[in-house]
Description:
It is a single chain. The chain has helices at 20-29, 74-80, 90-95, 100-112, 125-129, 133-144, 172-189, 206-213, 230-241, and strands at 5-9, 35-39, 54-57, 84-87, 116-121, 154-158, 197-201, 220-223. By secondary structure, the protein is of the alpha/beta class. The chain has one domain (5-241): TIM Barrel. It has an 8-stranded parallel β-barrel, surrounded by 6 helices. α8 (206-213) links the parallel β7 (197-201) and β8 (220-223). The longest helix has 18 residues, at 172-189. It is globular. 1,3-dihydroxyacetonephosphate is lined by residues 9, 89, 159, 164-165, 201-204, 222-226.
Amino acid sequence: MPRKLAAGNWKMNGLRANLVELAKLEEKHGDADVDILICPPTTLISACEDTPFDIGGQDCYAADSGAHTGDVSAEMLADAGASYVITGHSERRTDHGETSADVAAKSRAAYDAGLIAVICIGETLEEREGGTTLAVIDAQLKGSVPDSADAENTVIAYEPVWAIGTGKVPTLTQIGEVHAHIRKRLTDRFSDGTEMRILYGGSVKGSNASDIFSVADVDGALVGGASLKADDFSPIITALENS
Ligand code: 13P
């Protein structure tokens, strides 16, 4: 069984004053028996060095260094204390026009820097309603996940775009169908595909987490809004521990 992972993506939220939430989370889950990852904004990564949780970036540039004003390399994230980085989040794909080829290049850069890539995939509402969800997932997996991926360096996050920040969640059947499909593709392609972690993301809350974690091949969650406050993230971690 893959090791369970509760991951929080703070997106563009968080100042140093908000780090008190990590201290609160540590009181309850400092010795959790699931992995806990926090992806704060880049400016806070080095300030997280004392937390017991894994820390990740939210994006990285594909090149090691150079004339790329405003960008951050995977090596810089690792140097600041990160051990993970999210690649291909739908907000990057939409807001910054990132393609699956870009996401694969960023994920390879993550591996080169010794980071675990949390590679995000997921369909839009239009794609879901048009019946092309699994085809979209296939294309994104093929294009975004490098051949050098393995269960140690890669986590897949299935995040339906229409479920992100909307309070809308797919049915458990829909989640199960996509996760089983992803698992099949991973096991077909990678020798350790059964061990690769597949997270669900999109409007996960304390109130729906247990149900979502009961679905086969859901190895944890990538949580946005509900990861910002310890009181909101804590029940999700507890649900994962009990799943
Ligand atoms: P929400 O949990 O706020 O829906 O965000 C999900 C997400 O995009 C995590 O990466």
